[in-house]
Amino acid sequence: MAPILLNCLGTEHSEYIEQEQYVKNPHLDSMEEDILYHFNLGTKTHNLPAMFGDIKFVCVGGSANRMRTFAQFIHQELELPGNVDDIRDICEETDRYSMYKVGPVLSISHGMGVPSISIMLHELIKLLYHARCRDVVLFRIGTSGGIGLAPGTVVITDKAVDSFFRPQFEQVVLGKVIIRSTELDEEVARELLQCSAELSGFPTVIGNTMCTHDFYEGQGRLDGALCSFSTEEKLEYLRKAHEAGVRNIEMESTVFAAMCRVCNLKAAVICVTLLNRFEGDQISTPHDVLVEYQSRPQCLVAHFIKKHLGLIA
Ligand SMILES: O=P(O)(O)O[C@H]1O[C@H](CO)[C@@H](O)[C@H]1O
Ligand SMILES: O=c1cc[nH]c(=O)[nH]1
């Protein structure tokens, strides 16, 4: 079946920008109430503009603990009043996602994989719309497997690519394949690289990020419950990915980039590499080192936010 090409570069994208509206759904305005089921929030039960209207930065990542830690960290970095231990999970009534609000920053977990982050993004983007937020920037702060990079290197995504190294995301809608572009905001990526130079605490590169639908076979690992390929075939695939500009592999970037792009939101993906996939598959790095690695994308984004809020030059 021929795929439908939507929201690629060109006039369609500039039309979206003109509309300056985050949602792309004509049905929403005729709904009496919108229940954001997985957040346990709704337009009738909550005053979303009062709760979220001042949001300017949204940071998302897979793990609930990481996103609570990030909320506490950004609270300290922004020198906000109050105790970090009092920051509460806005979604505590549901165990699907965790959400923390710290001043103009929202920190949300999205679980693992495309379906999980995609559900979260639908509800987040509607939340920003209902709350009448403007000029919001989204960041995914995650972990990844590196290709030819020293573990601990932070990769700022240039293009999010699929398992065939194509900068696109395929969504099946009513039995038809819709293809969406996965280009991210170049200026935000450049600014983040500059933040890294200013912090000078860890190596950072801009490169393509491959998004897969599986951690094991899908990322060419030899250590899953199933494996049908040889070590040489694995390395050959990774070499091809590297030639295509891929510097890391994770599991959410394509849908994140595609949905932000079509919904007119500036976005960036910043993932630390936990290992060099040319050297192995198992993540054997000690826990304390992994925790420090995970803090690196958080430091970069905190620096970016502080600069944008005028807290540092
Ligand atoms: O570190 P996070 O955000 O969870 O993301 C990465 O880690 C998970 C796999 O361990 C996948 O979801 C991958 O994208
Ligand atoms: O190798 C890795 C490490 C973290 N996350 C991934 O998706 N892959």
Automatic annotation (TrEMBL):
Residue ranges occupied by any Nucleoside phosphorylase domain in the UniProt entry: 56-305
EC class (word): transferase
UniProt name for this protein: Uridine phosphorylase
Listed PANTHER family: URIDINE PHOSPHORYLASE, URIDINE PHOSPHORYLASE 2
SUPFAM superfamilies tied to this protein: Purine and uridine phosphorylases
Reaction catalysed by this enzyme: uridine + phosphate = alpha-D-ribose 1-phosphate + uracil
Binding site for substrate: 219, 221
Gene3D superfamilies for this protein: Nucleoside phosphorylase domain
Any GO CC annotation of this UniProt entry: cytosol
Positions bound to phosphate: 96, 140-143
Pathway it works in: Pyrimidine metabolism; UMP biosynthesis via salvage pathway; uracil from uridine (phosphorylase route): step 1/1
Family: Belongs to the PNP/UDP phosphorylase family.
The EC number(s) this enzyme carries: 2.4.2.3
Keywords: Glycosyltransferase, Transferase
Functional description taken from the UniProt entry: Catalyzes the reversible phosphorylytic cleavage of uridine to uracil and ribose-1-phosphate which can then be utilized as carbon and energy sources or in the rescue of pyrimidine bases for nucleotide synthesis. Shows broad substrate specificity and can also accept deoxyuridine and other analogous compounds.
